[in-house]
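tool_call: predict_structure(chain=1)
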Amino acid sequence: MGCLARYDAALFSSFLVTPVFQPDLTMENAVRFSRFDRNAPLATCSAHPIVLEDRHWPSCEHYFCYHVLRSESKAEALMAQSDPLEVHAQTRPWYRRKKKNWKTLRNVLMTRALYTKVQMYEDVREALLETGDNLIIESSLYDYYWGIGRDARGLNQLGRIWMEIRSKVSAS
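tool_result:
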């Protein structure tokens, strides 16, 4: 009994010294934004027109959605829309005919649009650099590709793109 009591006491004292739970503050300190918030400088729907590929685009969302659609006439019709949320809504449905390789192109297109936006607008650049080394999260509850999704297990591709751009901009 004495040997067992000493073992339990040693185990209990090591338990008190070793923290059982280490909080992960990465998610808690993350910078969160919605891609559809017109007032957020990191949003794709913000009022920051860009010039890319010798064309004026009302928003990054316009640029992205234009390149997703296979039909040139439908893509041009979307560009007549002034509201980026409406452009996204019309491009989103699964039954829309998208380009064959759009899944491989989507990150390239979004990176190109967002990097152009950072280069054109000082307020966007400052907002991006103000995030420091914190994780950037697109806080969509329903988009598991661009955002983190409802259960925070999404891919957060939009946040990852912003963090890549941030590292390039801060290095220059």
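agent: The chain has a mean pLDDT of 87. Proceeding to next step.
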